[in-house]
Each structure stands twice: as structure tokens, then as C-alpha cells.
Here is the input.
Amino acid sequence: METGGALGARPGRHAGAAPRGTVARQIGFGKVRLSLLVTALLLAGCGTSLPSKFYVLTADPAPPRFGAPAGSTVALGRVSLPGALDRPALARRRGGNEIVYSEEERWAGPLDDMVRRVLADDLAARLPAGISLVESAAKPPPGVTIAVEISRFDADETGAVTLAARWEALGPNGRPLGPPRESTIVVPGAGRDAAVVVGTMSRAVSDLAARIAAGLR
Here is the structure.
């Protein structure tokens, strides 16, 4: 007499079916292979990213000054930048209202500190004869402290740089010595490369220093 199914087969399992343990191992191996494939793709993607480049602003040298010994002192006080520039990536303006940041083109340090340092160096080289630049915490206090607020400092798609700033002179007691002054400086672009743009931005800072110095004559 014939019997249905293989001898000793468990109920519910077809003849020739793989054991449950074998199926589980196959599924596990498949997950491992998938995980390794995803990891390899991620590593490949990371390997194609461009390395970051870091840039600094530089002071623009001026001819040495000759004249009477310094009798008055000036200090550079706070220099503030808009929050949109308070980040390590270089900012470029696209159109009138869009700012684009480059993750590969980055500042080597905080931009506000860099602008203040370069502006101080440029200002010291351009002050009228008889006036010297000192630290804001100098003793005795400086006769004049210059506070600067920058509202725009970026390059457009052609590499041209716009620097818009407002500054005022404060006396030893912190009170304004006159109305604040404003200036918008536009330096034509010499190229779109980041290194060229940073050089153009440095020239804009030196132009601002020259205008501040001219107001102290």
C-alpha cells in the first residue's frame, strides 16, 4: 500500500523543502551582503568629495608715513558683521536676494576677527601724520575709538565685491564725536576663483580703512 509523502516527514512540510535553519541563515547572509554593499557605496561617495581649501584676508601695504611725531591716538573698537556671514564657508551673492555658501571654500578663522585684524593693519598704515593706532584698552584711553558695523561683504557671480559699512567716532567717554558715516565700496572682480575673490575682498577692506582715515584728518 502506498503512503502519501515521505516516511518520517513532519506534518505541514513538503518533501524536499529546506530546513528552517537553512532558510534563516540564507536570509541573514543576504542582509550582511546588503549592508556591506551600502557601506561600500557610502565610502565610494565620500572618496569623491572635493577637499576643502582655507583662505585668509590680508592687509594691503601702504607707503611709509613721514611727518610729525604722533600726538593723538585712535583705537579700532568693535567691528560687527551680519549674521549671514557668521559661518566658515565663503558667501557669494546670486542675484539680488540669494546667498550661496561653498563648503569647499572656507575661511581659516572667524571672519569678524579676520576683518578687524586686517582693518586695523590697513588703518594704522593710512592714518594722518601725528595720529597713531593703539589698542582700545590702552592706558591712557585713546582719544578716539572707531566703531564699525558692516552690513554687506560678499562677491557676486562675476567676482566683484561689495562692502557696505557704517562707522562712527567715539570719545573717551563713549559718546559720539559726530554723526555716523556710511560708505558702499564696490571693487570690480578680477576673476571668479576663490583665491582671487578673497584678494578682492582684502582690497575692499583697505579701501574702507582709507575712507575712515580720511575722516580723521
About this structure: Strands lie at 53-55, 72-80, 89-94, 98-107, 131-134, 144-155, 161-170, 181-187.
